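Reproducibility note. Readers wishing to regenerate the assembly model reported in the main text can use the exact inputs given here. Chain order matters: entities are listed in the order in which they were concatenated for prediction.
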Amino acid sequence: MDGWITLTDIVQVLKKMSAEIDGPIRSYIGDEEPAKLVEASRQYPYAGGKRMRPAMVIASAGAAGGDRDKAVPLAVAIEYIHNFTLIHDDLMDGDEKRRGMTTIHVGYGMPTAVLAGDALFAKAFEIISTLDVPDSVLRPILRIVTKAVWDLARGQQMDIDNEGRIVSMEEYIETIRLKTSVLFAAGAAGGALCGGGDERTVEAVHEYAMLLGVGFQMFDDYLGIMGDPAKTGKSAGNDIRKGKSTVMVTHALKSIDDPAVLEEFKAILGKQDASEDEIQRARRIMTDSGSIGYAKDLADEYARMAVEKIAFLPPGEDRDFMIALARFSVDRDV
Amino acid sequence: MDGWITLTDIVQVLKKMSAEIDGPIRSYIGDEEPAKLVEASRQYPYAGGKRMRPAMVIASAGAAGGDRDKAVPLAVAIEYIHNFTLIHDDLMDGDEKRRGMTTIHVGYGMPTAVLAGDALFAKAFEIISTLDVPDSVLRPILRIVTKAVWDLARGQQMDIDNEGRIVSMEEYIETIRLKTSVLFAAGAAGGALCGGGDERTVEAVHEYAMLLGVGFQMFDDYLGIMGDPAKTGKSAGNDIRKGKSTVMVTHALKSIDDPAVLEEFKAILGKQDASEDEIQRARRIMTDSGSIGYAKDLADEYARMAVEKIAFLPPGEDRDFMIALARFSVDRDV
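Running the prediction on these inputs yields the following structure tokens for the assembly.
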């Protein structure tokens, strides 16, 4: 099919882009006092990761017909924002590990985790203030990114409020749109603006990234239940023990026909000390009820809709990368 | 003396300006979901306070010869940033009360306190993105405010690192420049930019506010030890019990001649369960050593230097207000 990059290729392309962006990511936080804060704020962004967000910023600038290099500082800013939210998230969730690293609040204490997040947030917007774009373009970029961070905080609060209760499909989608999609979308739209994209292009990549984000997060929730902990770095069964309301759980509760099985499932869901056997049983029940398949199909559907939004863009490396990125979002093992 | 507003008057003027800005401060956070986050982020900014920072933004715009109204949104943004740092500060310090209110982390829980701070921070920059100034002016405003927040985080980390150790006068000044002055200065310079001020004016009000901020914080530390807890809302003696290193403490340690008194003073400093009598004794020692007087004189000197920086501005209500504000910073009971 025209424009497809294979999944093996996209992993390679992401690795290549990640290597390209590592330098810039390491260039904005100078050696200042106090060293403890500077170190703490560097830890997550310097440690790597999939770098999907910065890659999307850069590709959007290219797809919009602009100079990809001009979007690099914005790509760094978006990655810093992502990492600032991870630092605060880990603190709020009390998580002790992230990708094998000790989390910031465990390694440096709660106050420094709060400040390191704040500092990365500030640095991100300081970088935006220096973007090599016309002044008239800086304003919409600033507006879209600030709005995204406000929405992100709303999404994270919703996520907290949802804990321990069953949410509707609509609530689930709204939460993941806010906590995941808006930052992808701000990055994509901001990238297109850096690239001099017209309104139609900016809007299209924004919609693309909103849809991709939903698919990405749905698939992330899938990995949280069915993924390989050795690869995902997440404790298996944690989402079930926390009773996290995902599309799989919502679907299962509506679809399990046998009342006895339904009771059994409900008893495991949110049971903090559920055994490994019970976790396995919950997985089996959700598979049998078609809920796992349903979630994967729905994530696929979002990726498909995302791709549709940018189909009109001129063919080329950047558009192809964005198409492959949408597929990768819902078909990865990490 | 030309241009002086009396201290009684400045309190009235601040009250009037505070009333004017209350409406705008309440206008930017709409009723959105989740209600808990929105409520938590509104609590501090809606509760009032001295409103020194927003007043300074507005006066700077006027003193620079511009339209004060155009600086109002920036004044709100600076006040939101101040309040975001208060929310995170209270969480980091474990404080349970602020101006008689229950602090956010106590009232809403730690995660919502983290998010409410982040949300206010984001909202502040969203407001900045909508400022009614030429696009070319938006960029320097953004740069100066983002840099200020980065520096603020550094200052707060230094403050934490300083706990329980005696810092030099230079370290003390550097810490309060970062944790207090830079936001005043960003507000003043940003206000002058909103008012169309030229480079000399912007620089002058920036320096004015940096100096004022140092005086303000020195006087704040003075109030923390000698102020009336019923007025300041701070627990008397807390700074002594925490062993907080202020200009008074640094001076006292160098100036106490009698070795026995010095030992006595050191024993009380940082003693978490120091009695009220011991606190009184520490106050007396610092008064006798001239340290209290020294700190007050030094704060006065900073206010005087601040005033000098803006003496060249055209006489008028706004310049007079800024002069009075500098004096008020170092001569208030709250």
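We highlight two features of this model. The radius of gyration of chain A is 20 Å. Chain A has one domain: 7-329.
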